[in-house]
Input
Amino acid sequence: MANHLKNEHSPYLQQHEDNPVDWYPWGEKAFKKARKENKPVFLSIGYSSCHWCHVMEHESFEDEKTAKILNENFISIKVDREERPDIDKHFQDVYRLMNGRPGGWPTSIFLTEDLKPFYSANYIPDEPKYGMMSFKALLEVITDKYKNEKETLVDEADKILRHLNPKEDKIQATKLDESIIGRVLDQANQLFDNKDGGFNKAPKFPQASTLDLLLDLYRLTGEKEALNMSILSLSSMARGGLYDRVEGGFCRYSTDNEWLVPHFEKMTYDNALLSEVYLKAYHVTNNDFYKDIAFETIDFMLEKMSKDKLFYSASDTDTEGEEGKYFVYSYDKVLKSFEKAGIPNKEHEKLAEALHITKEGNFEGKNIIRVDDPSSLDIPFYKEAIEALRKRREKRVYPFIDTKVLVSWNAMMIKSLFKAARTDSKYLKTAIKSLDRLLETMYINSQLFHSTLIGKEPKIQAFLEDYAFLGETLIEAYESTLDETYLITATKLANSAIEKYYVNGKWKFSRGEFETDADIYDSSYPSSVSTMISLLHSLSSLVDSVYKKFVFKTLEIYSYDVMRQPISTPKMSRMVIRYLKDDIIIKAKEEQLTLHITELDTITYPFTLIKNDTNNGFMLCNSNSCFGHEKDFESILKFLEKR
Output
């Protein structure tokens, strides 16, 4: 019997529509029932590609006995954290406050009928383990306490809510100066894994924005340490495991220090950000290896994760209830694939060894494809072997794809397409068509929306991150095409975001049902605050210097936290450096304009520096014409000074 999720747009909620648990979507219908029946609310927050969300569903939410306890004593609500990041953000703050550590998914929150939180957890096992009681036992304890000790629970919930919304502290501002560069390098070095790259210990996340910042610092300072940390990380991540060597694309994180065993979900934001970083590494090093990884990642996204020019949000870690089943190989079947591909038998064992394929396996008796040196694939029959393994996958069930379209994540991916187009023009038409399609679908009558399914009318209005990432992508589109329509739309979005979310230097993430503060810390992807001021900084050069005031005020408000721990805020740290570098200007005397160098390879307002692939020279172009023609960047600067 279907519950109340059958009409929901979210693929994650649809995954639970046949659970025996009488799930409700977040909304007044569920709240009203809880108040009427005087029952506590069980709130479960997750997302479709989350491995432990699936585990808890299979263990507990598909179990008739557990469902009976929930249905008799609770009102159960399911939330897709990608569809409603405002709800998720609020309750992640609740979890952090109650447990003294960051949360994760699934998030399990128990609330009063008035939606006051009194207990929180993440994954809860169906049997006592990991030092936890079973989910059924926990439900019985909470049921008893809610009937007999409700006042105590309500008092605790009120305390939590008071701590969640403290009175504003006096702002601690500090001087923004170039010492931030040294702090970034020192802190990155302290966290850096000198053996396998990356930062901290397992589980290891790619941390694309940190790598992006380090590459920029190398370009600014020539500091080899910044470059070495970046390229070791990028090379190690591409060996295989975190990076799928068969079909391309990156998984969300590695469970070990060597980037070998991931949770196998592939998120759009990771692949967007990492393809951009690999492209930057290519431009810094002139090593085609980094470009190849970027293009393979983009091509994977276009082939597997795109429809009607828009990008889906994620693919699952599990296939047919088994983690990684689609991605891994047995030794015997690999050799059969080699034989079928016509690879000589005498090469099979050496080839298997080069791809880290053994009888014992490197993941639960099976094999994840991996190489020792991804930058030098001097392996006989490598391409034939990869093609053979790709064909074997064609016989398998592909992991579930969450077909939800998110504005912020699509914007990241489209920005990477524009970046790729500067290296290979074949991506430009795709980038333009994708951006135009996104605007047509999600920006309706000057109202921006957050998420939808392709072919469905969007209902959930945008959050700060949607304005920020889409605006930044529109700037990238303008600089790539000189089409001023994109610049006009970016300006409109920035103005709307300021009106909706800006409050005296601070930014709100959401202002609707849940008013939540926007973070400055980069988590899975760059913070919405730093991305928004990146947009405003570009507009201050391209449109009106008034936007610079919002940039400065925001940096001032958060200056203490950024200067103290810049490695935790890599994109905000990048914005501090970008702001400080504004004193590097070139006067174009004849035009009476000031040109701001915002990137080392780009001049904006209203000129764009374009590489001429015919002779590797440069042209300086505005929306009307191109002029100047020099062999290198330094000559362009001299050319401008003469004018």
